[in-house]
Amino acid sequence: MKTFENLQDIWNQQNDFNTNKTASELIKKSEEHRKKIKLNHIATLIIIGITTLILLCYFIWLGIYSVSIFTIGLVLMISSMILRIILELISIKKFNTINIETSLLEYSKNAASFYTWRKCIHFIATPIIYIVYTIGFSLLIPTFQEQFSTPFFIYLLVSGYGFLIIFAFFLNKKLKKEMEILAFLKNIE
């Protein structure tokens, strides 16, 4: 009987939440969540786009006139960023096809399909893009060492590789969050 009393105590300690939400409230909350996800994709596109634009300008300004290890490094970095932009645009298109006004099972099936696509991006394309970008940056190092003073060269090394490490941390955090959502959606079925 003590177990029942423990369960009763736990039950009584719960907060009183209004779990009787109307369909319109649920749809509104879903639309807000949807906007948040879409803004996240757009923010990613903007960041990658600005990085790509800076690299392109730098390439046009310095590297377009000769083929060297430096220009190959810039081309690798720019190519990896363009590939990532294309994948993000495809993700946005796939995300926009999910209709929130379908049944829960249909919605969860479509959302699971989207997050399965994102899983492929994160586990296949992103590591390749990341490695190509890192190789490209590494190919710039000898030129940086020749062209810049030692303190500025050290700054470039620390900030460049530091950014890659910090970016990997945030990417891993985002990946875990998306995989949790995918696991949740697969449990709905």
In short:
The protein is mainly α. The chain contains 5 helices and no strands.
Helices, strands, pairings?
Elements: H1 2-13, H2 23-63, H3 69-96, H4 104-147, H5 150-188
Helix pairs in contact: 2-3, 3-4, 4-5
Q: Any low-confidence stretches, pLDDT <50, length ≥5?
A: none
Mean pLDDT across residues: 82
Report Rg. 23 Å
Structural class: mainly alpha
Distance between the termini: 36 Å
How many separate helices? 5
Give the percentage of residues in beta strands: under 5%
Write down how many β-strands occur, each being a DSSP E stretch of 2 or more residues: 0
Please state the overall shape, judged from the principal axes of the Cα atoms: elongated
What share of residues is helical? over 70%
Return the string of H and E elements: HHHHH
Largest sheet: none
Task: Describe, in plain words, how this protein is organized in 3D.
- By secondary structure, the protein is an all-alpha fold.
- 87% of the residues lie in helices and 0% in strands.
- It has helices at residues 2-13, 23-63, 69-96, 104-147, 150-188.
- The chain is elongated, with a radius of gyration of 23 Å.
Q: Main traits of this protein?
A:
189 residues; elongated; mainly alpha; 0% strand
